[in-house]
Predict the 3D structure of the following.
Amino acid sequence: MKEFNVGIIGATGMVGQRFAVLLENHPWFKVKVLAASERSAGKTYKEAVGTRWLIEKPMPKAMEDMVILDASKDIDKIAEQVDFVFCAVNMKKDEIKALEEEYAKHEVPVMSNNSAHRFTPDVPMIIPEVNPEHIEIVAAQKARLGTKRGFISVKSNCSIQSYVPALSPLRKFGITKVLACTYQAISGAGKTFETWPEMVDKLIPYIGGEEEKSEQEPLKVWGRIEGNEIVKAASPSITTQCLRVPVSNGHFAAAFVSFENKPSIDEIIDIWKNFKGVPQELELPSAPKQFLNYFTEDNYPQAALHRNLENGMAVSIGRLRPDTQYDYKFVCLSHNTLRGAAGGAVLMAELYAAKGYFDR
Ligand SMILES: NC(=O)c1ccc[n+]([C@@H]2O[C@H](COP(=O)([O-])OP(=O)(O)OC[C@H]3O[C@@H](n4cnc5c(N)ncnc54)[C@H](OP(=O)(O)O)[C@@H]3O)[C@@H](O)[C@H]2O)c1
């Protein structure tokens, strides 16, 4: 694979910092540009981040003295230097939509962590093991935007990245309804226990907008391309409750599921164990070898023990058993800032790279 030059838009933020660390020694992607708001522009990365560094690993040495560009005003300059960008910015939804389209119109593909374009009908929302075929909608998006190589692709919300992968290979049994209660880590709110000490011994039964995302996004991921858009799947019906819990990293879900043609427990576990998606077949650099991991111990998986499985890119599942109201229930876990945010976007970019979408 040839090497691609990359920009991180929102490099000073929590997700941007994760991108910086994940891309430090990436075999295909080389970070050429760091960009953020006008508050950071003109400063070195080290100066701009200051005491805001939130990742357990240190800032990559080679990036410390890179001068931050202005994500909005310097688009021409950025477009000249990169083959594509990762984008994770904290702005109003309309502003993010406009900014990402501006990059695409400058012929820069955008791998987005933002939610702004998740329901734009010709913008694919990719979990690479689940719906890699959705990247084909990019041709329709380019036609709408009038671009040759510029386009936007988004990843889904971190809350769905455990139960949607676990349920996806079971869709052939006709999933009729799903209930998922998520228990979400504080890093999902951009926080640590140092920056949010009040969260110790606390549980907050509300995360703004999260339940809507958790119920609607799976239907787009499970949708199909029809003409110039991705049409959402009509089923299953999904209901969720999303809680913030005092865990540093790792989003849990307690999931309940019913089927038209109920498989056996052994069948389900066998499907999970043998699951291989396109990233595994293509041996993409960030792809976990074993995406879905089933644990037989009653007290597994656990956030602290299993969130970093396969560099935080695997999904851990346990406690599959019959339920009195649904066919089955189980628990599952994924690392929210790795698989659920920057890592998932890097894997998505690897998929596009392998399929030639970043070629000139
Ligand atoms: N935290 C998570 O786990 C997570 C997971 C999935 C998705 N996301 C999404 O990723 C995005 C970023 O989240 P985050 O937690 O990394 O946020 P964050 O820590 O608040 O960082 C926000 C970034 O956006 C930049 N920014 C703010 N206003 C800007 C402007 N007007 N123009 C250009 N850049 C601007 C900031 O630059 P300055 O430093 O210069 O202000 C900073 O680099 C959000 O859309 C969020 O919903 C977050």
The chain has a mean pLDDT of 97. The chain has two domains: 4-157+342-354, 158-335.
